[in-house]
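Regression report. Comparing outputs from two consecutive submissions.

Submission 1:
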Amino acid sequence: MASQVVVIGGGPAGMMAAGMAAVRGKDVILFEKNKSLGKKLLLTGKGRCNITNISYDTQGFVENIPVNGSFMYSSLKTFGSSQLIEFFNNLGLFFIEERGGRVFPQTQRASDVLEKLEYFLRKSRVRVINGDVDQVVIENGAVKGVYLSNDLYYPAKSVVVATGGLSYPQTGSTGDGYWFAEFAGHHIVEPTAALIPLESSDKVCRELQGLTLKNVGFKVYDKDEKLAYEDFGEMLFTHFGISGPIVLSASVHLRDYEENKYTVSIDLKSAIDHETLEKRLQSEFDEVPRQNFSNSLGKLFPGKLTSVMVKRSGIQPDKKCSDITKEERAEFARRIKDFRIPITGTRPIEEAIITSGGVDPKEINPSTMESKLVKGLYFAGEVIDVSGYTGGFNLQVAFSTGYAAGDNVK
């Protein structure tokens, strides 16, 4: 019997779409070009799988999706974080909440999330075939089926494209869905790296490699000193620049690095204001008046950072603490609260957690995920130009759009 529905891509969006369509009685084939499903899912949350975030209502959730978040209103209201958790609970998987509303399986294993999704597919009688779709066949403005790379043809009334973006190509995300969409007449917003570490030419990053800073203020300015992004939290210095949760979230907002010449400003003592920090410095210096300035900062900074701050202070390393002037102290406090790092770009897109760009959501029905241009063509997941911050927002986007597509395929 001919398949009514073909789903291309066995990630979270594709598995959800296939399973939901089958639950509704559709005859569904899920094509995955890898030998196994969910390869990228197994990498999420450092192998623990941060499936969603429960700190926000629909409006708040949308605000954490800076790229085309408004497109997600309808699907999030239908299948948001509470519905996703209930879905997995009904399959026997339970979760814990961590800092910032992040939700992880109690077992702390992404493989358990994948196992439940595979069980869902079996239970709903989805046929999973290891095959590489080469073409979506469209005639008279409607989907007719798909051709595989081995020239096998599968007729279909509906096709769901859930092929992912360009990040982690070793997991199979090689941009196939963009070609399918473009062939169908869709506009593709140029794919760029999102949720990706930032590179810097400043040697200080290599000096501080491996140092994690927690509870720091974080701002990004463009070439005109206009604030491009602001956050608070944890970051990490690397041999190439900076990484960590607040850095990854910042990367979603940054574009055209050559033109904009971004600069990061880190507030190393965000818990206190400038005036209080000056008093703290005065107190530290008063405790060791005859000590060299370079030896007086042990209580203020971790070891690696101490030597860097001595260099950046503008104060001679061998100057006695009692001789440091009020002006020098004020300037040092300013530099502590405005630790600058120039940004030259991002790591390669292959290292991105997600891809920003893809199928223009203006050409997709936000309630059903059906193309506005081709009848029976649906999109779900990262192939759509929707990008959220780190913290479970992007996996929820995948599940919500997958659910919407599966629940509405003809």
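Submission 2:
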Amino acid sequence: MKEKITIIGGGLAGSEAALQLADRGYEVDLWEMRPNKLTEAHQSGDLAELVCSNSLKSTRLDTGAGLLKAEMKLLGAKLLDVAQDSAVPAGHALAVDRMLFAHKVTKLIETHPGIRIMRKECSQIPSGKCILATGPLSSEPIMRYLKELLGEEQLFFFDAIAPIVDADSIDRNLVYAKARYDKGDPDYLNCAFDKRQYYAFVDALLEGEKHEAHEFENEFFSGDKFNFYENCMPIEELARRGKDTLRHGVMRPMGLEIPSTGKKAFAVLQLRAENSDLTAYNLVGCQTMLRYPEQKRIFRQIPGLENARFLRLGSIHRNAYLNSPAILNQNLSLKVRDDLWVSGQLSGVEGYVECIASGMLIAGIICGEYSSLPEESILGQLWRRLTQDPGKQRFTPVNANFGLLPALDDCPRDKKLKRQMLSKRSLTALGKAFHNLEFNVDEFKLNNLLNDEEQ
């Protein structure tokens, strides 16, 4: 008789865990309350719906996100293959047609003989083995259960999403397609600002009327500052750090010279394809908490978007996560209930791929395949960050980055070489731990990494 397991939440972590466990012979009940009950951010009932962005970040092995994908591919992550099949042009990043991606994941799970989907809200956590993968927008019954079970208040941060514009409303006489430093295909559209246009745009961001705290947000609202996680910072909040912050950050013009003149713009805002038909584009880095009328007024000041038609405006919503190092066992189950595992963003990982990795890890842990992972790997360090006491520092969500990894014995000064060595070390360690394989460096393009300034 097959062993049963319940998974609550059909997002990225829950979907990955369901497929992994069902393929290993488990009988999986997957609970998903959508579409009967939507969250503040979701728009459909499809599983693994991407809410904020359509990008799963870089595929390059000189980035933490790229190395994490390589590690996950080695260990057999399911959703990465679906993402690749749903990819849209995005240079060195893996971006997907989000509707196609969610549809493919939903169909894959619906047709799996080992998975039964329960399309209703789970108001009470069942007994027996269970994975809680309800994400940062967990329903009130789930949050009440956790509060009662854990006996402590949860931690919260706010998240913001960027607008999407209709491709036909973009002025192609002003906007140009170009990859940074002409490396790879010109998958991004670029909106070039001169000095006057840039500072007028920044002033508009600073003066724009913002979202006000709702009643449920009050305990996390102080003065005019929201408690944002750094990687989700609204563009207008970044602008408050200094008028040149954006052009030295998300609007950095380096390597994006204007083709008609060959000159460098003062600042460049990029547009990334939202779907495979290239009918919609996301305003990269423009997550915002501005009110809807203000968004239309201000973002139409972007050169080439003067007549933009907005298919989706930016918005703000509350994201929740647990103080995992204080409440989780080493195997990512709760200390107060060792047959209940917490996965995905609710556990404190940040990012789409990190959530998929979390579901994959817990499935392997439950099946007895992972008792630990090499400390040289991003996967191993993500695991450790969720279970080790952060000391006096407050625990905050963690994502894939080279700063997690232990130092090299002989660390070169050259950053490119350093990251090459870190990636090779990680993949080699995972290969020896699970497959006793020696990695071909050229296969993973470790000898062909681009310079830091070309990222």
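Expected: both submissions complete independently.
Actual: both completed, but the second showed a warning that disappeared on reload.
Relevant detail on submission 2: DSSP finds twelve helices and 19 strands in the chain.
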